Amino acid sequence: MPAPLTRVDTTLQLPATADAVVIGGGIVGVFAAYYLARRGLKVALVEKGLVGAEQSSRNWGWCRQQNRDARELPMSTKSLDLWERFATETGEDTGFRRCGLLYLSNSEEELSGWARWRDFARSVGVTTHMLSGAEATERGRATGAPWKGGVFSPTDGTADPANAAPAAARAILKLGGTVHQSCAARGVDVEGGRVSGVVTEHGTIRTKVAILAGGAWASSFCRQLGIRFPQASIRSSILAVSPGANELPDALHTSAVSVTRRGDCGYTIAISGRGRVDPTAQQFRFAPQFLPMFARRWRSLAPGGLEGVRSGHESLAGWRLDRPTPMERMRILDPAVDEPTIALTHSRALKLLPALKNTKIKAAWAGYIDSTPDGVPGIGEIATLPGFILAAGFSGHGFGIGPGAGHLIADIITGDEPIVDPRPYHPSRFAASAWGKVADF
User: How many CB atoms lie within 10 A of CB 295?
Assistant: First the structure.
């Protein structure tokens, strides 16, 4: 598994009962469990592989408000505050820093779009600075090139994907919760029409609340329960280089390539939005609902191969609760890297930032970004199965808004005042027409 990841020691013995069981140890799942445990609930988190091993450790690490869709912006703003508070509350280090994010462009169309977002952001109290050509060229001096303009969002930042989810898992344990790795949830028990337990490969935990934060596996899991959740995954490949490049921005986006400083002073490098579509039975099933998304993103996407079939996360097959499931056969989604994309990414990065010639490629990895038809996550209780909370489809935004999403899930379960309006996220919207508004991001 080439993506860096901090390992965390977790709990061997399953509890017989819990107030809530979280299925999935990615960034959303661990923060949901953390905020529930902080409120005094007895929480168990089950993860089929390792905490944070899938997309939660394979992303850029950006925690941003800049260019967020209006529906996600409130959660983004709240999440930045929660990222900051987490270290004080727990003593655990996620690597979060408000280093600011820098966007540079020579496209008038792109700059006009950023200016429109700036005007919208002002209306909701978010600070972002449009940069003149001279200002952008100065801030982007590491490129050695002139720029027509750009954006600097000073209150945005980054966290460390290798450490963030494990840090939250350790915080759960400190609060008396339990975290179980190599423990796949196979399904849920139902009594009287509502959740009564979560069935895992190592036994059943009796509970009235199950939170599915299963990332790219969520739709397949829902299908076993008769719940239709439209979801499609894009295979994205990125690389990391060694330390050695000095005086580069901490986080820089251009249309050619984006670069982020890592905790070891190396950099993660990627092409925004670029990915492979690996055809699967699930992709074909939900294709009509994803037509608007595809129409908007097709320039960045290319046909993939059989990685999705091999991985098994988008199969239409059913499984039994007393036998191994596809999740036990594929503990960690670790798809093949798209080598042409890695080569293109590296060549673009060297051209953009000459100082990167002093570095070497340390690793390259791929991951599956799980998306919904409108690019906004599904968070909320499923009406047909009381006690079952869905939290998936984060469409490449889950890492940055993970704390806010986890807090909202805890609010929904405990009946507290929600940290943000939950209505834009409720999964019931997926029953409507496919031709809804696709997220601006």
Answer: 9
